[in-house]
Fold this sequence. Notes:
Layout: H1 14-22, E1 27-31, H2 35-43, E2 48-51, H3 55-58, H4 70-83, E3 88-92, H5 102-114, E4 120-122, H6 130-138, E5 143-148, H7 154-157, H8 167-183, E6 187-191, H9 195-204, E7 209-212, E8 220-223, H10 225-229, H11 245-262, H12 276-287
Helix pairs in contact: 2-4, 5-6, 6-8, 8-9
Residues 31, 50, 52-54, 92, 146, 189, 191, 212, 222, 224 line the site of 3-methyl-2-oxobutanoic acid.
Amino acid sequence: MSATPPDKVRPVTTATISALKQARRPVVMITAYDFPSGRLADEAGADMILVGDSLGMTVLGFDSTLPVTLEQMLHHTAAVTRGAKRALVVADMPFLTYQVTIEEAVRNAGRFIAEAGAAAVKVEGGVAIAPTVRRVVDSGIPVMGHVGLTPQSIHALGGYRVQGKEAGPALRLLADCRALEHAGAFAVVLECIPAELAAIVSRSLEIPTIGIGAGSGCDGQVQVLNDLLGMGEFTPRHAKRYAQIGDEIRATIARYADDVRGGTFPGEDQTTHMDAEALAAVEAAIEGSAPPATEPAGATGAATAATPDAPSDNEWW
Length: 317
Ligand code: KIV
């Protein structure tokens, strides 16, 4: 019996991402949540695709990332990795799948690699999460950190607001990033921090920083796909709407609805016809047939008679 060949390694690896920083070339990362968005982001040339737990808001209709489950993230990550052939796919570990014990974190991170085909996982937090990052990395799983505005801590942070504006929090954020680097993280997301702080952090670290709402001094950028496409009701300040796909989708579905109601869809182009001979045979068979019995065969007496409301042979079709 021949052995199953291992999955081919994707062209973009963590070494590629690190080399981009050395070459001072910006890293491009975008979120995706399903097969088509994974395929399109890949074909568009993104270096990394993040299956973000922003899935909770963009796809599942929650008002935060907190309710997103491990099973939901695995399901969507597997769809993205089926679509993305080249980019490095990073899966977000959802709330409480890595904070409780290190053992659980390793096991759950492993599921993203083994079951969903991701090449790396992302976790939120700095110094406090560094021992977990170390163990996951030591298990052979690349880890991306995430500091600044960390949406899984939204209640502790007191809202979606810029972090690290004062000297104390800014220095703590730098210490968090250093701890992540020291623990073996291959990159770190800086979310919603001042551009000056992001530039300092980016210069201080060997590993690439990937910014979102952190200015242009980061080594790369990540954005939520739905924000770029114009699919949501609200666009955060750090995002740029490159399209109005939401309007386009709504107008397209309205045109389809008009066509159905107006009787112009489906038209000839969307219709198949039966061979005339086969059609004649079907019609002849139907004309010669009796309406279906209302009682099982073998029933006796009044029960076998047609009910008063039953249509006649001619009315049946
Ligand atoms: O979940 C997500 O999409 C993210 C990005 C905002 C970095 O974590």
